[in-house]
């Protein structure tokens, strides 16, 4: 059981107990008791909301870690690939803006004979070393 699930279950149990106390206090004429119960109820709901936000943040961070682990750099070309995707990503866009922008198809310059790939998002050209 995850920590977030355990915390949610504990909060739910506390809310059930607090609801029972609040119902019992409805018949009481003690206004201080009613005010303290109301404050406690509000605080417990705030804790529940914080746990939900933390759970969402934790899920998002886990997704980001998994995504980062799927990134690999080709040693020959220096280009970045994501998972099993055969199309390379722009290293500049990925590293500076955390964007996964695919580079254009390889293009051989007729004058220089060099092969390059172009990023339409940032305008960077990458010269690809061909395998010997």
Question: Can you describe this structure?
Answer:
With 132 residues, the protein is α+β, with helices and mostly antiparallel strands. It folds into two domains: 3-69; 72-128, no CATH class. 52% of the residues lie in helices and 12% in strands. It has three helices and five strands, in the order H-H-E-E-H-E-E-E. It has helices at 3-25, 31-69, 91-97, and strands at 71-73, 80-82, 107-108, 115-118, 125-128. Strands 3-4-5 form a three-stranded antiparallel β-sheet, with no helix packed on it. Helix 1 (3-25) runs antiparallel to helix 2 (31-69). The two termini are 53 Å apart.
List its salient traits.
12% strand; alpha+beta; 5 strands; 2 domains; rod-shaped; three-stranded antiparallel β-sheet; 3 helices; 132 residues; two-stranded antiparallel sheet
Quick structural gist:
With 132 residues, the chain is of the alpha+beta class. It has helices at 3-25, 31-69, 91-97, and strands spanning 71-73, 80-82, 107-108, 115-118, 125-128.
What structural class is derived from the secondary structure elements? Answer: alpha+beta
**Number of domains in the coordinates?**
2
**How large is the radius of gyration?**
28 Å
Q: Based on CA inertia axes, which overall geometry fits?
A: rod-shaped
Helix proportion: 40-55%
Q: Give the total of beta strands.
A: 5
Low-pLDDT residue intervals, each spanning 5 or more residues: none
Strand content: 5-15%
Number of separate helices: 3
Strand order of the largest sheet: 3-4-5
In this structure, how is the largest beta sheet organized? 3 strands, antiparallel
């Amino acid at each position: 059981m995850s920590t977030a699930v355990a915390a949610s279950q504990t909060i739910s149990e506390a809310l059930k107990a607090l609801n029972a106390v609040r119902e019992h206090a409805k018949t009481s004429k003690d206004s201080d008791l009613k005010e303290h119960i109301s404050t406690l109820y509000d605080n417990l709901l705030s804790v529940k909301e914080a746990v939900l936000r933390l759970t969402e943040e934790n899920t998002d961070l886990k997704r980001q870690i998994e995504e980062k682990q799927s990134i690999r750099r080709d040693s020959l070309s220096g280009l970045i690939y994501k998972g099993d995707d055969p199309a390379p990503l722009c290293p500049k866009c990925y590293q500076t803006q955390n964007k996964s922008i695919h580079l254009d198809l390889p293009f051989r310059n007729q004058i220089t004979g060099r092969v390059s790939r172009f990023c339409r998002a940032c305008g960077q050209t990458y010269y690809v070393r061909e395998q010997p």
